[in-house]
Amino acid sequence: MSRRYDSRTTIFSPEGRLYQVEYAMEAIGNAGSAIGILSKDGVVLIGEKKVTSKLLQTSTSAEKMYKIDDHVACAVAGIMSDANILINTARVQAQRYTFMYQEPMPVEQLVQSLCDTKQGYTQFGGLRPFGVSFLFAGWDKNFGFQLYMSDPSGNYGGWKAAAIGANNQAAQSILKQDYKDDGTREEAVQLALKVLSKTMDSTSLTSEKLELSEVYLTPSGTVKYHVHSPDSLSKLLVKHGVTQPAAESS
């Protein structure tokens, strides 16, 4: 049945579905997973880097985590080239707002403006939806720390803990069981590592396969976005007991 209705994003099927948009969401299901967890003193984002080949030069810059403004960052799952376009759009919008009003852009307003762009690509003929999902982590004076998830349809929602990408259903069910409302940032990091270690396709967690970042307030009250270095990640993995010794090559 779907074959007759999935040639364009602008055609509804008789059941009221937009197949092209659903297929875009399926594409994200094969991407490296990302998890976001909200805590009382910050937001934690963690992402799985998929190493496709041993010959590939590992990127020194972040692959899954991007800073949008001083107070907002995001984790990405899906087609990276699509993500780069949207991240650049978000950065420009955040700077325009700051230039115009002399204060940081409220997090939800930034997410909403980006989702408006995504929605446009599901409604006009000849355009393909962006094959990317985002987790936005940020802080503003109105609502404090916030975590939002958005998908190719242009929908977004505020979450306490969310997972996107491969095995997101399994990750979401573990988060549902183990998430605590008043947890600290350290507990959120521990939970994020635990969830990723259980849902990742590869057997052992190592710092090369992970990216971890946090958004929190410094004692002086400024918002800080911090990406953990590989050394710091290795120590955290050992500390929380989720790392497994690499199998000895015979």
CATH superfamily: Aminohydrolase, N-terminal nucleophile (Ntn) domain
**Annotated CATH topology:** Glutamine Phosphoribosylpyrophosphate, subunit 1, domain 1
CATH architecture: 4-Layer Sandwich
For the record, the count of structural domains works out to: 1
Strand content: 15-25%
Tell me the major beta sheet: 5 strands, antiparallel
Report the order of strands and helices.
HEEEEHHEEEEHHEEH
How is the largest sheet built, in terms of strand order?
8-1-2-9-10
Task: Provide the low-confidence segments as ranges.
Answer: 246-250
Give the C-alpha Rg: 19 Å
Strand runs, count: 10
| Ends apart, CA distance between termini | 52 Å
Question: What can you tell me about this protein's structure?
Answer:
With 250 residues, the protein is of the alpha+beta class. The chain has a single domain (12-49, 61-239), classed as 4-Layer Sandwich (Glutamine Phosphoribosylpyrophosphate, subunit 1, domain 1). The protein is 33% helix and 24% strand. The chain has 6 helices and 10 strands, in the order H-E-E-E-E-H-H-E-E-E-E-H-H-E-E-H. The protein has helices at 19-28, 80-101, 107-120, 168-178, 185-199, 230-239; strands at residues 34-39, 42-48, 65-69, 72-78, 132-140, 144-150, 156-158, 161-164, 210-217, 223-227. The strands form 2 sheets. A 5-stranded antiparallel β-sheet has the order 8-1-2-9-10. A hairpin with a 2-residue loop joins strand 3 (65-69) and strand 4 (72-78). Helix 2 (80-101) packs across helix 3 and helix 4 runs antiparallel to helix 5 (185-199). The radius of gyration is 19 Å and the shape is globular. This is Proteasome subunit alpha type. Residues 5-27 form the Proteasome alpha-type subunits domain.
